[in-house]
Amino acid sequence: MVPGxxxxxxxKQGAGKGTQCVRLSHxxxxxxxxxxxxxxxxxxxxxPLGLRAKEQMDSGELIADELIMEMVGRRLSEGDTxxxxxxxxxxxxxxxxxxxxxSLLLPDxxxxxxxxxxxxxxxxxxxxxxRVCVDCGANYSVSSPPLSNWTCDVCGGExxxxxxxxxxxxxxxxxxYEVQTAPLIDWYRSRDLLASVNGTGxxxxxxxxxxxxxxxxxxxxxxxxxxxxxxxxVEPETxxx
Length: 241
Ligand code: ADP
Hints:
The strands form 2 sheets. A 5-stranded parallel beta sheet has the order 2-3-1-4-8, sandwiched between helices. Strands 6-5-7 form a 3-stranded antiparallel beta sheet. The protein has about 240 residues and is of the alpha/beta class. The longest helix has 24 residues, at about 205-225. Mean pLDDT is about 90; it is low at about 230-240. It contains 10 helices and 8 strands. It has helices at about 15-30, 35-45, 50-60, 65-75, 80-85, 95-105, 120-130, 165-180, 185-190, 205-225, and strands at about 5-10, 30-35, 85-90, 110-115, 130-135, 140, 160, 195-200. It folds into 2 domains: about 5-115 and about 180-225, Rossmann fold, CATH 3.40.50.300; about 120-165, no CATH class. It is globular. It binds adenosine-5'-diphosphate (ADP).
């Protein structure tokens, strides 16, 4: 049987979080919980949350922590995520969201937080050419479009440039990432939950690095359990370049 996982993936906009999270959710047979996708769904369905969030999302601002954590809390209390876990994409984005997430999960805990490392010039290049399906969120790019006429290969939806992939909104999102989200890397590192993974290269290669980091963590966990009491600490960080 494939074991589940409780995983958070961090990384700048354009680091490939969405792509890797889908792949990891298939690998571990757990739901991919993306706050960006959930919010875009709310906007599309014109729910009260969607109507409130749209303008902020389009200009690259963050949505209030309380609204996000209420939405995430609801999703993580469902049977599938409770039973097998999840790959969480886009949350937490602030220390306050991370604190709230930890208490939402109790008595369980995250298995690992992966930080996908990609240099800023490369994410800027990726974001400028990124295109997404409005219906299922599948990712394409100008250099790797769908097979036919900007129609999604997966679901037949329309493939477009995201409204927040404009130059101004991209700059704002990257600034907010540095100020609000990057501190989470040290926050999780100090809790011995972080694995930094090189996010450059082909998607398959990056997925293999992520799986390796997760398996390393599991093996370290089971080794320390089988030899307890142990003086050898769990490998705090995985760098695979
Ligand atoms: P990206 O990582 O490229 O900015 P996402 O699809 O993850 O894209 O998120 C799109 C937008 O949704 C964000 O710019 C923000 O407005 C909102 N959002 C998503 N997740 C969160 C979150 N955890 N906290 C606050 N706002 C969020």
